[in-house]
Structures are given as C-alpha cells and as structure tokens.
Design goal:
Largest sheet: 2 strands, antiparallel
Shape: globular
Oligomer: single chain
Helix content: 40-55%
Strand content: 5-15%
Distance between the termini: 18 Å
Order of helices and strands: HEHHHE
C-alpha cells in the first residue's frame, strides 16, 4: 500500500470539471470546453488563476502544480460545482 507521501509525489493526469457537464474532458475536450464556456463556468480560467507554475518548471513540476491547483479549487468549492477527474491508465 502506498503512503500519502508516495501518492503526493506521483505525477497523475488530472482535470477539473463541473458536476453537470456531460462531457469528459479527457475524451472529448472540445465538446467539454464548449459546454463549460456556454454555461458560464470558465473552468480553464479558474484553474489558470490558481496555478503557481512557470515555464521554467519541469513537466513533472507543472503537473504537480496543476493537481495542487485543482485540489485547492475542490477544497474551496462552497457551491459543490467542481470535481476532480483522474485519468486511469
């Protein structure tokens, strides 16, 4: 069994979505994005505002930063609108 530190160091493919979006951003990003924007969520912009990343970061560090931003959004999610998706390989 993995401990929390090992899980935290693992780089995973994650996305933020809303509970009512019928499209999976991993499988059909264009339709997911169009639906998200047309319903006024602007989820990509929400994530972008929370990122602490830099182009000088490695791909792994950027992925960890993305997941940390998504985790923070979900944690502060007072309306219950957002949920985190993790791609299973």
């Amino acid at each position: 069994m993995e401990n929390k530190d090992e899980i935290k160091d693992e780089v995973r493919d994650v996305m933020l979505t809303t509970i009512d979006n019928p499209f999976n951003p991993f499988e059909d990003f264009d339709k997911w994005y169009a639906w998200d924007e047309s319903h006024g969520y602007h989820t990509c912009a929400v994530v972008a505002r929370m990122l602490q990343s830099s182009r000088s970061f490695s791909d792994e560090d950027q992925a960890r930063d993305l997941e940390a931003a998504i985790d923070q959004i979900v944690e502060l999610n007072i309306t219950g609108t957002y949920k985190k998706l993790i791609r299973d390989w």
